Amino acid sequence: MKRFWKITLFLFLFAVFCGGAPLEAAPQRLRSVWANGVRYLDLADAAAAYGGSVANDSDRTVVTLGKKRLIFYPDKRYAIFDGLRVNLCNPLLARGGRVYLGQLDHANVLTPYLSSGKRYRHPVTKIVLDPGHGGRDQGTAGSRLLEKAVTLNLSNRVAKILRTYGYRVELTRSRDVALSLDERSAYANRTGADLFVSIHANASSDRTIRGVETFCMTPEGAASSNSGKPESRRYPGNANNEQNFLLASYLQRSLLARTGAEDRGVKFARFAVLREINCPGVLVEVGFLSNRSDEANLGNPAYLDKLARGIASGILNYHRSLGK
Asked: CB of 133 within 8 A of CB of 289?
């Protein structure tokens, strides 16, 4: 009889301490390999830990979980998450008939996306919007428009929408003045921001390039999307890696849905304004002033309203996804 109760107690304790947190326990059960100094986790194991399945063919791997469909490509540093382009920290690895995902991508991309924010809890009452550039720093320039004017106009429109939902919204600048990058992140920290969104317009020497892209902080140990050099240093902005990615994916998806713009993806960068913030934050590039079509859109009040509603909706969707 004593043995029976010991077994019963063991099973009860096992259920409490192991069964109650499958997401946190999942990495311990994943097969892994190392390549070029990077640890990779078996993608099929990772998907199964969330109740998903994996199908492989010659040129792609598809993860299915309920209505979610994630498409990965061997040796490619990007994936398609429910139609949204998502950059990865490391290229997918194919070895021995199996497909492996970098550990950094498992922790900072796959886990937050498949858990849809339900494992994260933090208040979202104060939002700081950061209109890029200003004053002497005009940013990039198109044939008619200056980035500093576009970002301030758009930020004011976003703030107006968010305030109707009861959010406390502040801007790092409300007029045409110059601010250093350090001043922008310091302002967000000093005012106790719960979210930080820096708004910019883009430019390229290739005038055919157009579209919208959203950046979040590069996880420590990874290379940024536009750089091949990993960096191991951990910045204050890395404390919210998973939430940063979630916020970026919600904003990018919402912007595309509102505007129909070309999807240039969710990307990683160690931008100065993202490195030092203490709250989840992203930097949005809303179009290319070097592209004739994008510049025309960014000078159109109706299109700016679409962008503003896209940013505001992305923030709302992120907030609503968080665990209660």
From this structure: no
